[in-house]
Design a protein that fits this description.
It contains four helices and eleven strands. It has a single domain, classed as Glutaredoxin (3-Layer(aba) Sandwich). The strands form three sheets. It has a five-stranded mixed beta sheet with strand order 7-6-5-10-11. A four-stranded antiparallel beta sheet has the order 1-2-8-9. Strands 3-4 form a two-stranded antiparallel ribbon. The protein is globular. The protein has helices at about 60-75, 90-100, 115-120, 160-170; strands spanning about 5-10, 15-20, 30-35, 40, 50-55, 80-90, 105-110, 125, 130, 135-140, 145-150. With about 170 residues, the protein is of the alpha+beta class. The longest helix is centred in the middle third of the chain and has 14 residues, at about 60-75.
């Protein structure tokens, strides 16, 4: 198992990432997650669409809340050929509750709580917390990663403009 210390920090404190980091040009690993109704969902089920996959530590934290609401708002301005997904280690019940309260209806919330399969396959599992690092992957219609951002400070938001630019470049 690959480990990377200090690639990210939380409030300036270095953390260890577990898993194999994927990069631009790599085939997106096909892992199984759980939706808000406890049904399995595979990353490959989004093939044929451009898919924005954002991993966050927990929807019940301020930055993750802001990020997911922002992507939900951004999704309204994109075509139906784009799927927005947020993945966390939160239990599906908590994700469903949070999405309902936040009015998030354009982002699909998926849970990696069972096996941390996404965290391990994408290299974003935080060893010390068993949470996912803040990262964004844009996957093209064929399942290839075309954009990757690993946010170096977990308490900061991703570069929304660059994410949307990558998406628009794949949907023209």
């Amino acid at each position: 198992m690959t480990k990377s210390l200090g690639t990210i920090t939380l409030n300036g404190n270095p953390l260890t990432l577990i898993g194999s980091a994927v990069g631009v040009g790599d085939k997106a690993p096909d892992v199984e997650l759980v939706d808000n109704d406890m049904k399995p969902v595979r990353i490959s089920s989004f093939r044929g669409k451009v898919c924005v996959v954002a991993s966050v530590p927990s929807l019940d934290t301020p930055v993750c809340d802001m990020e997911t609401r922002r992507f939900n708002k951004d999704a309204a301005g994109l075509s139906n050929a784009v799927e927005m997904v947020t993945i966390s280690m939160d239990l599906p019940f908590a994700q469903k509750r949070w999405c309902g309260l936040a009015g998030v209806d354009r982002v699909t919330a998926l849970s990696d709580h069972r096996e941390a399969a996404f965290g391990n396959a994408y290299g974003v599992l935080i060893q010390e917390l068993r949470l996912l690092a803040r990262a964004v992957f844009v996957i093209d219609r064929e399942g290839v990663i075309r954009y990757r951002e690993l946010v170096s400070e977990v308490a900061e938001e991703p570069d929304y403009a660059s994410v949307l630019e990558a998406v628009r470049g794949l949907t023209v």
